[in-house]
Input
Amino acid sequence: MENMFPDVIQIMSSNLRAGMTIDRAFLLSARPEFLYLNDEIVRAGREIATGKDIGSAMKGMSRRIGSEKIDKTINLIMSGIKSGGNISTLLEQTASYMREKEFIEKRAASSVLMYVIFIFSAVAFGAPLLFGMSSVLVDIIVKIGSTMPSVQAAQIGMPFTFSALNLSQTFILYFTLIFLVVSNIISSLVIGLVSKGDEKFGLRFMLPLIALSIFIFFAVRFFLMGFLSQTFALS
Output
């Protein structure tokens, strides 16, 4: 109805230019293609025909629709009627401004959507993929380090040395999971702030993000461990 309302007031402006009264111009602006908005205009027109003030009828229509944009537009129209200005010009300019605002909002929404997609992709897919690969790489390095000869033997003819790594695989796993959970919580709040201007809106994405990232992390680990187990004897 918000998208169709500029067409309504544009038709209303044309009716006023044709010499109709405001209430008649408003009633004849109804069109079947306006669907539910058409029903509201017809209902407000009946109220005006039964003696109700046009301002009260249009405000009642605005309350039933529950749109802030339509409510502000109707308040502007009522202010123009009370001030005795050129209502047809006012309606025409208002319709033009509403269309421009709608176009700007769509462009802003598309830009915001790109940021949301980027954050979602980085947290839900990129981070668990990289952590899954790096955790398997650490397991390989630890396994290789445990099977290397002593430091003195490894130093012969080599520009670097190897030594056993005392790094717990359990610590790496827990650290990765905690990092993924914290990053997903923060990212969900950022998504809510970017998309709706309220961090609480992003809380609905928190659990799905955490579940998806952890699933991808373990899936990557399972695939790589199975692929490299024969080569590096990973357990």
Remarks:
- Residues 87-147 form the longest helix (61 residues).
- The radius of gyration is 33 Å.
